[in-house]
Amino acid sequence: MIMGGSGEKPQLIINGKRTDGRVPDELRPIKLEVGTLKNAEGSAYLEWGNNKVLAAVYGPKEAQPKHIADPNRAIIKCRYQMAPFSSLEEHSRSGPNRRAIEISKVTKEVFENVILLDNFPGSEIDIFIEVLQSDGGTRAAGITAAAAAVASSGIPMKDIPYAVSAGKAGDLILLDLNKIEDNYSDADMPVAIAPRNNEVLLLQMDGSMSKEQFDSALQMIKKAGETITKIQRDALEARYR
Ligand code: CDP
């Protein structure tokens, strides 16, 4: 363990700046590449601050095993996984842990709400998210990367979703928490949104916020969404120009 345990809570804001020098409503630097993997139908590689995430998409193909197929629409399988070398924490257990199962499930639900499933009855679409390096906010990074990967696969979606978190330290609302902030903040709220109509596709919350704090966190997230959406579109355009 790098931190925690000792009970000493680090100061998250010093002179108005965060542990990594950002101001409260500042995103970490984001770099996105689409089409990274030759053998996947869609793929994307995302660096978001110190997070490094690879997303790969396969399908639509015949759902296997057959009994899981839905004759009316495609089903989505999603696997989020942290590589054993992705953090300083213990990753000795084999197979997905409870956290990975939860993140896979909420990510699957995000894509069930944007992919036009009715177009592909009886089939499955597989989304794999591999976290190569983690520093807080990997579920948001994974969804943002997977969205670009799905878009690059040509699977029709009603929108390209993005995700980012906001939280609070004391009364101060912070955008895009890094790992130290994630660990020691008073609230942490990852949100995924379909930008076209601002539909919320995922909203989780650790800790608590007042109604006003929640509103300003969501406001900050939507503002950041303009930047993230542009990064996704630019990466897709760069690939297919
Ligand atoms: O990554 P995200 O913020 O979506 O998920 P989290 O469960 O709130 O975890 C926060 C951070 O803790 C992750 O991004 C990782 O950097 C770290 N973590 C880890 O290293 N190993 C774990 N088993 C769980 C979390």
Note down, in words, how this protein is organized.
With 241 residues, the chain is of the alpha+beta class. It has one domain: Ribosomal Protein S5, domain 2 (2-Layer Sandwich). It has 4 helices and 12 strands. Helix 1 (98-112) links the parallel strand 6 (75-82) and strand 7. The longest helix has 30 residues, at 211-240. Cytidine-5'-diphosphate (CDP) binds next to helix 2 and helix 3.
Summarize the structure.
28% of the residues lie in helices and 31% in strands. With 241 residues, it is of the alpha+beta class.
The chain-level mean pLDDT equals 95
Order of helices and strands: EEEEEEHEHEEHEEEH
Write down how many β-strands occur, each being a DSSP E stretch of 2 or more residues.
12
CATH topology: Ribosomal Protein S5, domain 2
The N- to C-terminal Cα distance equals 45 Å
What proportion strand? 25-35%
- Specify the biggest β-sheet: 5 strands, mixed
Question: Percent of residues in helical segments?
Answer: 25-40%
Provide the CATH superfamily: GHMP Kinase, N-terminal domain
Q: What is the radius of gyration?
A: 18 Å
Please render the helix and strand layout as text.
Blueprint (H helix, E strand, L loop, with lengths): L12 E2 L2 E2 L11 E5 L7 E7 L2 E12 L12 E8 L15 H15 L10 E11 L4 H16 L8 E8 L2 E4 L3 H6 L2 E8 L4 E5 L2 E2 L3 H30 L1
Parallel strand pairs: 6-7
Antiparallel strand pairs: 1-2, 3-4, 4-5, 5-7, 8-9, 8-10, 10-11, 10-12
Helix pairs in contact: 1-2, 2-4
Bound molecules: cytidine-5'-diphosphate.
Keywords for this structure?
alpha+beta; Ribosomal Protein S5, domain 2; five-stranded antiparallel β-sheet; 4 helices; 12 strands; 28% helix; disordered N terminus
